[in-house]
Structure formats: structure tokens, C-alpha cells
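Box S1 | Example of a co-folding query
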Amino acid sequence: MQEKNKQDIRKLDLAALEHYFISIGEKKFRARQVYEWLWNKSLKNFDDMTNISKTTREILKENFSINHIHVDHFQRSSDGTIKNAVKLFDNKIVESVLIPTTKRITACVSSQVGCSLDCNFCATARLKRMRNLNPDEIYDQVVAIQQEARIYYERPLTNIVFMGMGEPLLNYQNVLAAIEKICSPEGLGISPKRITLSTVGIAKMIRKLADEEVKFNLALSLHSAINETRSRLMPINESNTVEDLADALKHWYAKTKRKVTYEYVIWDGINDDEAHARALVKFCKHVPSKVNIIQYNPIDEGEFRQASADKVALYLQILNAAGIVAKVRKSRGQDIDAACGQLANKNEV
Ligand code: SAH
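Box S1 (continued) | Returned holo structure for S-adenosyl-L-homocysteine
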């Protein structure tokens, strides 16, 4: 828990920590040692920093706290998916998910407490956005899942997706800072190629990512390439139209040369006809891309129903005939409300 009068030491970057160590008359290299304890080894206690003198540890204890997340509730699905309800220093809760497959162990992490977008089909949208997560809170979710991967699967974590609660591009700085730490040798040393940021589609921010020439992957929650339908599903489309997104993605590809993934749910009577499939084909021609067809996870008795298997097969046929790579993704962790769009802190008391 945060101690009010002390600064969270993980808010300092390495340079700031070095500066602090020099200011207390310590050797500069001690800062890196502490930094590695804090990030690479995820220590939660200054007393465990065995290569730091007792006197220095006392000074650190007096002046700093180490905020850390706490897995408050743990659930394991019959298909092996694990969901963590994670308590933050201010008692707010977010959820993250471990998804095991034969080849991969993927961590699905949250970037905000709640969400400000109003995608009509998503349970997280029912929670209002409470705040952005700090870089360390995002990082710690990955660490918790990395530990669970070792304990429950005896395998390392292989991939990270920003597909939990919240919109990562509306918490841009902190998400990028977290990714930087996740990838750095002082952090987890995970390759950015194994990280995917999923966005609702904010054209300006996609351009910004492109300009920074980031090395991780981008997924766009498209769900329809026809403005009228997409705006009905996702109000953000009114200010970030299909055309705006296509332009931003062209800029992304020109700068990064990285393929884009489109996430796409096919709903009964909403986007399951040929016209929508053909619009998707046209959209896919803008930049090298692939389509992940996600199964709809019902969140209530509302207007949305998964399209029939026949309609999904017809979509696939149209996409494949046009040379587009498309895969149907099976839903995971539905029995514990851990599947896409189901994260809504149901167990919070
Ligand atoms: N804000 C980001 C990441 C969170 S959502 C984004 O919009 O991409 C992760 C994915 O789950 C998105 O593709 C989202 O559209 C999808 N999703 C949301 N609710 C869903 C539901 N009920 N069933 C299936 N997928 C859903």
C-alpha cells in the first residue's frame, strides 16, 4: 500500500535514481543495482536488496515506498485460462488474463481502470473510466502472469497483448513507458515483436505510434468497415471514421513496415452479410494485414448475438478468395468471464 508521505520509487527512471544516489553521497552504480531489484527482480521490500548496505536501505525506506499490485482474486477456467483480479495501491481493481495454448502463453493486460469508450458490445464499457494505470501497474500485471506461467504451466510467458480493460492509446505515455520497461534488459527483456497493442482506433494516436517507429505490433478492433454500422457499434467511429483509420494505417505501415491485425466479431443481422464481408476485403487492401475473427462473448441478454456458422464460413470464403489471411479465434475462459469483452470486475465487493 502507498504510504502518503513517501514517493513511489518506481516513478524514478534510472537517471533520476542515479542523481538521487549521488545526492545522498552514495556511488552512482548503486542506483542500477536498486533499479534491477525493483524491475528485473520485482522486489517489494528494501530489506531484501542484499547488495545494498543497511544504512542506505534505511535511507531508502525513510524516503520511498514501493507500490505494487496484489492479486486479489484468482480464477482458473476449465480450459486452463487464468484470470487475476488485481488490486492497485488505491484499492481499485483491474483484471488480467493468462491464455495458454500448446505453443504460447499469452498475458492479456489492462491499461486503464474501466474504460471511457462506449462500445455497445463490451462489458468493460459499463464501468466508467476511473483512471489510467501507471507504468509499474501495467508491468506488474505481466510479472504476475509470468510467475503463474512458471507455477501452473512450467513454461515461460511468450506473448503480451494489450487487450484487457481500457484503451491503451488513451493512456499513451504510461503504456509506452511500461512496454519500454517490459522490453529492457533491466526489466523483463521480452522482445517487442511479442507484444501487441490493440486499439479501438484513434487515428491521431496511431500516427503518433508510427512516428515513434515503435517495434511492437498493432491490432485494430475493426468489427465493420462500413461507417454506418461501425458508428452504431463503436461511437468513437464518428470522429475516427473508416477512412481516417485507413489513412493512419497507411502511415503506420510506411513507417514501421509491420503488418496490422484486424479484430472482427461477426454478429447476427448486424454485419454478417456479403456487403460487410466485401467492405472488409476492400479495407484489407490498404496495408498488409490479417484478420482475426473473434467469437462474440455474450455479456447480457442484449441485442447482440454471434452470427451463424454458415455466415462465418461465407465470410471466410470471401476473404480467402481475395487472398486475405483470416483465422477464426476460439473464445477462451468464458466460464470465468475472462474472454474478450467480459472483463468487468464482477467479483468486486
Ligand atoms: N480498447 C482496446 C482493447 C480492449 S478490447 C480495443 O478496443 O481494441 C479487446 C478486444 O475485445 C477488442 O477487439 C474488442 O472489440 C473485443 N471485444 C469487446 N467486447 C467483446 C465481446 N463481448 N465479445 C468478443 N469480443 C469483444
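The first helix runs from residue 14 to 23. Residues 119, 121-122, 163, 167, 198-200, 221, 263, 265, 294, 296-297, 299, 340-341 surround S-adenosyl-L-homocysteine (CB under 6 Å).
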